[in-house]
Design the sequence.
């Protein structure tokens, strides 16, 4: 899914309604690992989407500012989450405008595959406070359904053949890369999450995947045809029951140390 896709009203509305709130599980894990005892004062959620990641950041932060390059996403988030304690504005990740030393913590969920690090990190280091925390994280659906190998076969033999994964940047940040901007890599951790779907909610979720949207944009496939394909292909797997899907994720904990402070 390219940046244009994120500014589509269907995608923005779907992110608000049909994406699982795994952000909360991620923040709970991070809170435990970092031994966070008190809330941060001001937080920045980069690439806030429809606001789920901002809602999660609020679990450990008093005030949250969310930014996204998509005006449709910002509109969804603003409608769902009140000001205060939230505020949202449209901006690319590299050009967020805020006074220097504003934010105690920043999160970026599912963002780094789209940003230019050499512009993003120096700007972030200006608007964050010394000793500020930066959390980079993401999670994604896998080929695993709890106790169901048939789903795994469907994923590889049917889904990925009809909806191949589009290319995107998937680099792993290193200490050498972030050090020039004042950041230190404190921890990098992989994790697994579980989420339960029925057939209808899972189809709605899958209709938001980059694999699917690439076929809509580039191949001209219609939403109706794709939705019907998912419903027919997955009905024998779900069998009218709720199923537990496995998500894989990661987070990176970075700390900012300003040399002049």
Sequence:
């Amino acid at each position: 899914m390219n940046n244009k896709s994120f500014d589509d009203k269907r995608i923005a509305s779907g992110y608000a309604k049909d994406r699982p709130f795994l952000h909360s599980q991620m923040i709970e894990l991070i809170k435990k690992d970092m031994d966070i005892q008190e809330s941060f004062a001001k937080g920045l959620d980069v690439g806030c989407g429809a606001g789920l990641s901002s809602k999660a950041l609020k679990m450990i932060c008093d005030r949250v500012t969310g930014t996204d390059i998509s005006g449709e996403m910002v509109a969804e988030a603003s409608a769902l989450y009140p000001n205060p304690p939230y505020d949202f504005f449209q901006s690319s990740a590299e050009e967020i405008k805020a006074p220097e030393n504003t934010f105690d913590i920043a999160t970026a969920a599912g963002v780094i595959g789209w940003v230019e690090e050499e512009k993003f990190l120096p700007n972030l280091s200006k608007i964050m406070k010394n000793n500020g925390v930066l959390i980079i994280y993401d999670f994604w659906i896998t080929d695993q359904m709890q106790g169901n190998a048939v789903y795994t076969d469907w994923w590889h033999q049917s889904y990925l053949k009809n909806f191949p994964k589009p290319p995107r940047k998937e680099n792993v940040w290193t200490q050498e890369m972030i050090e020039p901007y004042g950041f230190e890599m404190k921890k990098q951790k992989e994790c697994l999450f579980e989420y339960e779907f029925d057939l209808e909610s899972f189809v709605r979720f899958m209709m938001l995947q980059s694999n699917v949207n690439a076929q809509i944009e580039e191949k001209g496939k219609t939403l109706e045809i794709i939705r019907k394909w998912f419903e027919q292909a997955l009905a024998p797997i779900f069998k009218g029951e709720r199923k537990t899907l496995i998500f894989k994720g990661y987070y990176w904990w970075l700390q900012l140390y300003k040399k002049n402070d």
